[in-house]
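Entry 12.
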Amino acid sequence: MRVLLRWLGVALLAGVAARWPGSVGRVVSALALVVANLLPVWGVLEGTLSMGDVFLVYWFENFVIWACTVVKLRTVEDGRTHAMATANGRVMPPSFDATFFALHYGIFTAVHGVFSIIIAVITGISGAWWALLLTMVAITASHLVSLAVNWFGNDERRHTTAGVVMFLPYPRMIVLHVGVILGFMIALDGTASFGGGVYDPEVVGVAVLCGLKTLVDLGLHLTERWIYARGARSTSGVVE
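Predicted 3D structure (tokens):
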């Protein structure tokens, strides 16, 4: 895993971020998140991505989140992580949480993938391959930036527990679930009326999904930073 992180540039960026003030890292990762979330909207408006393409991209992002969370669970270093996790009187190995999450979140990802593919088939996968690839690369990069800058560079991995790390990806899964339902409604209806006018259902669908997802992503991003910062203060003996 260390070799892969070095190959992806995570280790290098983490080393650079370790020299930054914590606030700089938070801003950099937040900007990367927003840009990655706006790319699908740009692609639909420019006609290089369809709504079906966007659902596939967001399903792909679930895989990226799955992979990044597994890395976090394998590298979390807070001594409290496994202190109370026992089975048959023995402390669970560090890999147990990562394996459990990989299976549990992986099942949800597979189910949402099926529905996302169905929506993509109904609405049509008609975008340009380069736009689809660019969006996937940008979304992957945004998560790798956060992993490098915050998790490793700012040492957040030393100030949290496996339970917190495992919980945080699930609210985003709920957003995608809502998006799938809305996508089905728009795809089957064929039109979308708002404010007395009729709009392109693809634009409306992507706007609703991207807007909701961006707000939740930013909210979770800020929440994670607050949780880890509070953990850092508590482990350093600062009383709030």
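Annotation: Residues 73 and 88 are 22 Å apart (CA to CA). The chain has nine helices and four strands.
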